[in-house]
Design a protein that fits this description.
The complex is a heterotrimer of chains A (391), B (550) and C (313). Chain A has 391 residues and is of the alpha+beta class. Chain A has 9 helices and 20 strands. Chain A has helices spanning 55-63, 105-115, 120-133, 149-161, 179-196, 207-213, 231-236, 241-246, 279-286, and strands at residues 17-26, 29-39, 44-48, 70-75, 78-79, 90-93, 167-171, 200-204, 216-221, 224-229, 253-262, 265-270, 273-276, 292-297, 302-303, 317-327, 332-337, 343-348, 360-365, 371-374. In chain A, strand 7, helix 5 and strand 8 form a beta-alpha-beta unit. With 313 residues, chain C is mainly alpha-helical. In chain C, helix 4 (88-120) runs antiparallel to helix 11, helix 4 packs across helix 13 and helix 13 (269-278) runs antiparallel to helix 14. The chains are: A alpha+beta (391), B mainly alpha (550), C mainly alpha (313). At the B-C interface, helix 1, helix 2, helix 5, helix 6 and helix 24 of B face helix 2, helix 3, helix 12, helix 13 and helix 14 of C.
């Protein structure tokens, strides 16, 4: 081909991608309502949330596969709302990989380069290099049907690898792989990301995947971003009961309580408990005296009294009957039930013998790490504590 | 009456591949039996077709109640059955109007007792006679004598019946006589415009004038199918002058469209095309079939059409196929004042046209036992020529009190125009003018038939297709047409085709028969069209035929 | 399984599970099982034998005889073949059939492929209407009769469109040996069904293929060449065989529309074969049938060369 390669557009700015007040409506239905975030150069942002939360729609709007109903998407300083996907200079890995079954592995990887009419030599070099990176260089003449699922996924990654894109997008790329391959695939994705060091958006419904991959994570629900931040931000300082519950396995335990003033301090009463509010939260708690709240306790913040890193007293103890003990790599997960019949979970770094089954045991709550949420709105009552939240 | 092309089209709906497959499969069969033959006194006659033809099984009481025709038929049939104990009639599914279905049944020995013999050859006379020669129908020569057919047949039907002889034998009985094709015209319009009504002996140039005068806006002077040009060419001798005996060759015939009368053909074709494309007085299209031209006439969109004499008596209750009666009714005038029928115009030299008697032959399954064949012929004789016909007329009169229903055939094969017990006759039913025209047409002499002089070939030889192609091309092709080239092409095609056929007739026998045939033909034209004989036929005969026959 | 389903599934992108190449081989079936299978196959096999192969074989045999319906059958060698080979009308019929086939495959087979691809770019609602139009079950004979009127050069609808709407000179339509074949094929562009099958197949292609291609910089044409057409290929291949066979065997439609006219310009091979049958020339007809069979088989063989079995393998 003698034609010159078609140049891809260049964007320039400090912040690579800006999303501002973006909305997507399908008829009357709001799939995405008012989403805003930035992605810095070389940053991997994970969009996570339950199915139907709008994360994939957001990704597709970034790709240009869905028109934006309202708001703005900027690549660098350029608004791309009206720009077709092929002119946006993006690369995307699809959930089903979207590799073409009638083309060889080589032609699949070379597809984008050929669209841009790159020189034959350039195509060959880039494809070979990418295939080597992802260990599929021996499969270049095969058709996709002859490949395993993992190999197909690496073809899709190679196709993104040969591209010099301004934004890399992943739409649940691991959901079709079995558990064993996932770990390797995750490594491959990180390889690609580190190699390119470009803004990247990764969509998943799996919070553990999000925690493992994301520089930052945006938790979405009902078409909105609930909270955006690093993994530890979300884990330690969730802005809402939803985020707290969504992030972390096993999920956070939630108890209905009521805040009461107690001298200078405050106590929480409910669910058969009477717990003293930790001094670090007293100020926040006292603003809500007499109100019903939800107390969140992470499973690892429940301790067997003799092993607790704090003093276990009447005011920080929870009694529960052991219903199930699940050994894990580092200890065990214990399922319990309070006298009132509320189920909760605790994780220990030690193994609990099965003789504890059906026994009632006391557990110390690390009250410095509990979360308090408004019982009606689910909003965290400890917001003063937390970093700015993007909405 | 269906013409050949119409038949083809109806059949086309069935699919040729299947039909040919069935024929092919059955060719190897040929186990005799079935076909309604039974030993002993009991004879079963099976009738095919839908509706069953020619005779129905006994109609039920309800059907008789509703339909006077059925009631009349039932009475006639019952009388015959009473006279012929041991005979029963049955219905079978074979479609006797489908050539392939019929030949398949015949080859497999399962054909119905009776069928229209013409179907065997797809309504082509030469092909039908070949089929007879191959034994596809029972030989009825002796039965014709024992049933004294000669005395029962109308005088006007005798010449055409004699042409159905195949090498001295007959393979059926006369069933229907038609006075042939002619031209229907609008008597009322001609009167209104103060024009002259056509008379027997009129010419094609008079036709052209009349067509032009009758053309007015959306109404055309005439509506034509592709057969119109054929009809026109026949009046100039197209049938006899295009073919020469050639005993030297394998097929004994060759075709010549260019050396002797090319000018005549060119003139006729150009004149015909001028009517269509210059005068624009003709409604015509390659897709036209009988129904299209007939509808155009019955709906007043064309003032003349070519059709057979029987169209005049079309059933006015059949509104899907409107006829002259429907036209008269829509104009609120008597039929006789609206529609006339006349034989075809004559050619340049006074040769009369294609108005020629037509006959449907009733043939019988060759697998019938002698007794069954006799009973079948007997039933046919009874219903068509005998008492059965009379009974049917009487009952029809009682039931309908309509002469047109009673005398529904303007030229009955037996020539009988009255029946005892029915006041009035055929002429009263249809009017004098039309009956006169039919009589005139029926009286047109029939040129000597090749088949009566020459032995019938076992295969029909080269088909008419090439000639029909050119006629269709000259009739419809809108662009320029090189008639001379077309004629040369036609000649070459037919002779190339003929070169691959071998006659089943001995050369000497052929030459002898041909000499007799051409002599008869010469005599015929000298007698009936002296100008044509003197100007055209005789010189051609002397210069081309005689030398060829030695 | 209907043709359409099969077509859709062949071309659809539903990928088979990984590692299908190492399929487990079935163990040899037991005797009882073999017997069962044979019994299941028997009816279809004998049907095919009786109504498929036997007539075919007999047609072949008959073409070497005088093929009389009754009476003794004599072998006549290649006489019928020679007669058919030198008959100018046979050559003409093959020429007409070839032109008809090229026109009908070009206009009613290939054009709908591109129309279908273009339609897929339209809103879903429009697609449904177009599919409905293509799906209108026009019966062969009924629509043919309708078109006979529409094509009339003196009062037909098409003439009205030509002269009144488009302001052209009056057109001859079927009354022209140059145009008749085109006009015979023409209605098929609007009302013939492969477009529907193409659209069904196209709808079975995963949207992600197009999206991936779009993101990889492919425009409309590149998407068509690299995705739509390759995915349609098995369907095109299969339908093309039907179209080739169908158009070389065409009979009813021109028979009813023109009867072969004007001047034999629309008489196909099968129509001529039928005329031979009408003239009781069974041996000639079967010999002509053998010629047609050989011609069609050659076309099918050529077709198979151009279309490999499975583009994904």
């Amino acid at each position: 081909m003698t034609t010159e390669a078609i140049a891809e557009p260049r964007y320039s700015s400090e912040t690579a991608i800006k999303v501002r007040g973006v909305q997507k409506r399908f008829g009357d239905k709001h799939a995405v309502e008012d989403v805003s975030f930035d992605i810095a150069d070389g940053e991997l942002l994970v969009l996570v949330g339950p199915s139907g939360c709008g994360k994939t729609t957001t990704l597709r709007m970034l790709a240009g596969l869905e028109p934006v109903s309202d708001g703005q998407i900027q690549f660098g300083d350029r608004v791309v709302n009206e720009i077709r996907p092929r002119d946006r200079r993006i690369a995307m890995v699809f959930q089903d990989y979207a590799i073409f079954p009638h083309l060889t592995v080589f032609e699949n990887i070379a597809y984008g380069l050929r669209s841009r009419r790159e020189a034959r030599k350039v195509v060959k070099d880039k494809v070979t290099e990418a295939a080597q990176t992802f260990r599929i260089d021996h499969l270049l003449t095969r058709k996709p049907r002859q490949l395993s699922g993992g190999e197909r996924q690496r073809v899709a990654l190679s196709r993104a690898m040969v591209r010099d894109a301004a934004l890399y997008l992943y739409d649940e790329p691991l959901s079709n792989l079995d558990a064993q391959l996932r770990h390797q695939a995750r490594e491959d994705i990180l390889t690609l990301h580190k190699n390119k060091h470009r803004p990247t958006v990764y969509v998943t419904h799996d919070q553990s995947e999000a925690m493992a991959l994301g520089d930052r994570i945006a938790v979405m629900a009902d078409g909105r971003i609930q909270q955006i931040g690093t993994g530890s931000d979300l884990y330690e300082r969730p802005v809402s009961e939803f985020v707290a519950f969504f992030i972390g396995t096993p999920s956070i335990n939630l108890f209905d309580m009521e805040i009461q003033a107690d001298g200078d301090g405050a106590v929480m009463v409910g669910s058969g408990l009477r717990l003293r509010v930790h001094p670090s939260m007293t100020a926040a708690a006292r603003a809500h005296v007499g109100q019903r709240v939800r107390m969140g306790v992470r499973p690892e913040d429940l301790h067997v009294p003799r092993m607790a890193p704090f003093e276990v007293t009447e005011e920080n103890t929870l009694h529960g009957i052991v219903t199930l003990i699940e050994p894990t790599a580092s200890g065990c997960t214990v399922y319990l039930s309070t006298a009132e019949g509320q189920d909760f979970v605790a994780t220990f770094t030690v193994r609990l013998p099965n003789s504890y089954l059906d026994q009632e045991i006391p557990l110390g709550i690390d009250l410095s790490k509990v979360h308090l949420f408004d019982a009606d709105t689910g909003a965290s009552l400890l917001k003063g504590d937390i970093d700015a939240v993007s909405r | 009456m269906l013409n050949r092309r119409e038949m083809l089209r109806l059949l086309a709906a069935g699919g040729a591949a299947a039909a040919s497959g069935a024929v092919i499969t059955s060719c190897t069969g040929g186990t005799p039996g079935g076909g309604g033959s039974d030993d002993g006194a009991d004879v079963v006659l099976r009738f095919g077709g839908d509706p069953t033809w020619p005779f129905d099984v006994m109609p039920s009481a309800e059907v008789q109640e509703e339909n006077p025709v059925k009631k009349a038929y039932a009475e006639a049939l019952q009388t015959w059955l009473d006279d012929n104990p041991g005979v029963t009639v049955e219905q079978v599914a074979t479609d006797i109007w489908d050539q392939q279905a019929l030949t398949t049944a015949l080859s497999g020995g399962t054909a119905p007792a009776m069928f229209p013999g013409n179907v065997l050859g797809g309504w082509n006379v030469a092909a039908t006679k070949s089929a007879f020669a191959q034994g596809l129908a029972a030989d009825t020569t002796e039965l014709l004598e024992s049933y004294d057919m000669d005395s029962k047949l109308a005088d006007y039907a005798k010449p055409i019946w004699s042409t159905w002889q195949v090498n001295g034998a007959y393979y059926g009985v006369p069933n229907y006589f038609g006075a042939g094709n002619g031209i229907y015209f609008r008597r009322d319009l001609i009167a209104e415009l103060g024009l002259q009504e056509p008379q027997p002996g009129w010419t094609w140039s008079e036709f052209r004038e009349l067509a032009r005068a009758l053309t007015d806006g959306d109404r055309k002077g005439a509506a034509f199918q592709s057969t119109a040009l054929h009809v026109r060419l026949i009046a100039d001798g197209w049938l006899e002058l295009s073919k020469l005996p050639d005993p030297e060759s394998a097929w004994n015939w060759r075709w010549d469209y260019t050396t002797t009368h090319a000018d005549t053909w060119t003139r006729a074709i150009e004149d015909f095309r001028a009517m269509v494309f210059e005068d624009e007085s003709i409604l015509s299209d390659v897709a036209f079939e009988d129904g299209d031209t007939r509808n155009a006439f019955a709906q007043g969109r064309a003032a003349m059409i070519i059709s057979n004499s029987g169209f005049f008596t079309a059933d006015p209750n059949d509104t899907s196929n409107p006829g002259p009666s429907n036209l008269a009714e829509s104009l609120g005038m008597p039929l006789e004042e609206v529609v006339g029928w006349i034989q075809h115009p004559r050619g340049e030299h006074g040769r009369f046209g294609d108005t020629q008697a037509f006959m449907t032959v009733m043939s019988f399954s060759p697998d019938l036992s002698e007794e069954a064949l006799d009973k079948a012929v007997s039933l046919h004789d009874w219903m068509i020529f005998g008492q059965g016909w009379e009974i049917e007329r009487e009952v029809l009169w009682e039931e309908t009190q309509s002469l047109q229903s009673v005398f529904n055939d303007p030229a009955p094969v037996h020539g009988r125009t009255e029946v005892e017990g029915v006041p009035g006759d055929l002429v009263e039913a249809w009017g004098e003018q039309y009956m006169q025209a039919v009589e005139d047409a029926s009286a047109l002499p029939l040129p000597p038939n090749e088949g009566n002089y020459l032995p019938v070939e076992e295969t029909a030889g080269p088909a008419l297709t090439a000639e029909e192609d050119m006629e269709s091309r000259w009739s419809f092709e809108r662009g320029n047409v090189d008639i001379a080239a077309d004629l040369a092409n036609l000649e070459q095609t037919r002779n190339t085709q003929a070169a691959d056929f071998t006659s089943s007739v001995d050369d000497d026998e052929f030459a002898e028969g041909a000499r007799a045939y051409y002599e008869a033909l010469q005599q015929f034209w000298q007698e009936h069209a002296p100008d044509y004989a003197a100007d055209v036929f005789d010189p051609w005969y002397e210069d081309h035929v005689r030398p060829a026959l030695g | 399984m209907t043709l359409q389903q099969e077509a859709t599934e062949t071309a659809g992108g539903a990928e088979p599970p990984a590692g299908t190449e190492s399929q487990v081989r079935e163990p040899a079936p037991s005797r009882r099982r073999r017997l069962e299978r044979a019994l299941f196959v028997l009816p279809a096999f004998s049907f095919q034998l009786t109504w498929g192969w036997y007539p075919l074989l007999m047609a072949f045999v008959i073409s070497f005889t005088n093929a009389r319906v009754r009476g003794p059958i004599e072998f006549t060698g290649l006489e019928s073949y020679e007669r058919m080979w030198s008959d100018p009308l046979v050559a003409e019929a093959f020429r007409v059939t070839a032109i008809y086939a090229v026109l009908s495959i070009g206009l009613t087979f290939f054009i709908p492929i591109f129309v279908a691809i273009l339609l897929m770019e339209m809103p879903k609602r429009h697609i449904r209407w177009m599919m409905l139009l293509w799906f209108i079950p026009l019966s062969g004979i009924a629509s043919t009769l309708l078109f006979r009127y529409m094509f009339n050069a003196q009062y037909g609808l098409f003439q009205w469109i030509a002269t009144e709407v488009l302001g052209l000179e009056p057109q001859p339509f079927l009354n022209s040996s140059d145009q008749v074949l085109f006009w015979l094929v023409f209605p098929g562009i609007l009302f013939f069904g492969p477009g529907l099958i193409y659209m069904a197949t196209l709808q079975g292609i995963p949207a992600s293929y197009y999206e991936a291609a779009e993101i990889e910089g492919a425009g409309f044409w590149r998407k068509m060449w690299t995705i739509s057409l390759p995915r349609l290929r098995p369907v095109i291949s299969m339908l093309l065989i039907f179209a080739v066979i169908g158009s070389t065997q065409v009979f009813e439609y021109p028979m009813i529309m023109t009867g072969g006219g004007p001047g034999g310009a629309s008489r196909t091979v099968v129509m001529y074969l039928y005329e031979l049958l009408q003239n009781l020339r069974y041996a000639d007809a079967t010999a002509l049938g053998v010629f047609l069979f050989i011609g069609t088989m050659l076309l099918v063989i050529i077709q198979r060369r151009f279309f490999r079995e499975d583009p994904d393998a």
